[in-house]
Write a structure and sequence with these properties.
Layout: H1 3-9, H2 12-18, H3 44-65, H4 74-81, H5 96-104
Bound molecules: heme C (3 copies).
């Protein structure tokens, strides 16, 4: 394990997860992966630590270099991780992105511009940031 990943593991929210029993008032994240979803862009233990960096890196590449259709994309996250019940990654506390972020008290501004619902899969390419 590298130094960087150790540093990530030492983040307070992970420590908080480890002692979650002591915070009974805050519901623990319940991560639901819809059955039949293809595997993630990286192994789950890596995704837990680095997804924020992957996303900001890709945003920079898109905005500065015009790169599109990369493996890491916010719409990609949403098309796999949107709930089949709400169609969204953050409409309720059970939805994939929100379940952890609510627990860790992370507030995203991303969805002020980006849609948070999965478009019909066949039109996924057409769905950019809504503006
Ligand atoms: C003020 C509006 C705005 C906000 C807020 C915003 N974005 Fe974006 N984002 C855009 C626009 C516009 C693009 C360019 C879309 C294009 O040209 O394809 C973009 C592109 C991206 C891309 C590359 C294209 C893709 O689909 O992957 C990523 C990744 C991304 N944003 C992630 C984020 C994340 C993560 C957040 C929150 C931390 C965020 N953005 C917040 C407007 C915004
Ligand atoms: C092709 C579908 C797909 C895409 C695209 C995808 N994921 Fe995943 N993701 C999965 C699956 C399936 C899992 C469960 C582990 C596995 O099988 O890889 C997962 C696991 C995860 C986990 C770990 C959850 C846990 O168990 O703690 C995180 C965090 C995550 N994804 C975030 C993201 C983010 C952020 C994006 C966009 C950059 C993304 N995923 C893109 C399918 C996807
Ligand atoms: C396994 C739990 C978990 C899941 C699932 C998860 N996140 Fe996160 N995310 C976190 C934690 C914890 C942080 C704060 C980490 C830190 O402070 O370094 C975070 C931070 C972020 C950030 C940076 C926010 C900021 O203000 O710096 C972005 C962007 C982000 N997540 C996007 C997503 C998206 C999009 C999804 C759903 C596709 C997702 N996350 C799913 C746990 C998760």
């Amino acid at each position: 394990m590298t130094r960087t990943s150790l540093a990530r593991l030492a983040l307070p929210w992970l420590a908080a997860l480890a002692v979650a029993g002591a915070h009974a008032e805050v519901p623990k994240p319940v991560i639901e992966i819809e059955p039949g979803t293809e595997s993630c862009v990286a192994p789950p233990e890596e995704m837990r630590r680095t997804h924020m960096d992957l996303l900001s890196h890709q945003r920079d590449r898109t905005l500065r270099l015009g790169e599109r259709g990369a493996k890491v994309s916010l719409n990609g996250c949403i098309s796999c991780h949107a709930s089949r019940t709400t169609g969204s990654v953050n409409a309720t506390r059970q939805d994939f992105c929100e379940t952890c972020h609510a627990y860790a008290a992370v507030k995203l501004d991303c969805f002020e511009c980006h849609q948070s619902k999965a478009p019909a899969r066949q039109s996924a390419d057409a769905a950019g940031a809504k503006r």
